[in-house]
């Protein structure tokens, strides 16, 4: 079974409710991630688990659950590569003619910089 994302509607009225829900659901095996949206009253569970087991576990703590959706877990999007950072080197010394700073592009702090 592949990991799936399960969204469950459950009534959350206080901090203790949230704590009881988290405690009850986290006892189940095969769960990778659990999160609660208090405003929307949604419990999101990611893992290899049957949605009915989640509803049964919530019923044990007197919380009645309605399964909103069950679907494949979307992997997190990889971070986009950042453009090179342009640094300027301040002019050194006194020159009779104007000195323009040279842009330097650094790949990261461990690799040497190259002047273009």
UniProtKB/TrEMBL annotation:
Swiss-Prot/TrEMBL keywords? Lipoprotein, Metal-binding, Methylation, Prenylation
UniProt domain HMA: residue ranges? 3-70
Which SUPFAM superfamilies does the UniProt entry name for this protein?
Answer: HMA, heavy metal-associated domain
Keyword Disulfide bond included in the entry's annotation: no
What's a Gene Ontology MF term here? metal ion binding
User: What is the similarity comment for this entry?
Assistant: Belongs to the HIPP family.
PANTHER family, sorted: COPPER TRANSPORT PROTEIN FAMILY-RELATED, HEAVY METAL-ASSOCIATED ISOPRENYLATED PLANT PROTEIN 2-RELATED
Q: What is this protein called?
A: HMA domain-containing protein
Q: Which organism is it from?
A: Trapa natans
């Amino acid at each position: 079974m592949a990991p799936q994302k399960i969204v469950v509607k459950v009534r959350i009225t206080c901090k203790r409710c949230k704590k009881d829900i988290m405690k009850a659901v986290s006892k189940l095996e095969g769960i990778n991630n659990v999160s609660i949206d208090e405003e929307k009253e949604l419990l999101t569970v990611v893992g290899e688990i049957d949605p009915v087991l989640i509803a049964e576990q919530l019923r044990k703590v007197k919380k009645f659950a309605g399964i909103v959706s069950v679907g494949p877990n979307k992997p997190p999007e990889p971070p986009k590569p950042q453009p090179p950072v342009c640094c300027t080197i301040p002019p050194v010394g006194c020159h009779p003619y104007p000195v323009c700073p040279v842009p330097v592009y650094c790949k990261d702090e461990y690799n040497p910089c190259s002047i273009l």
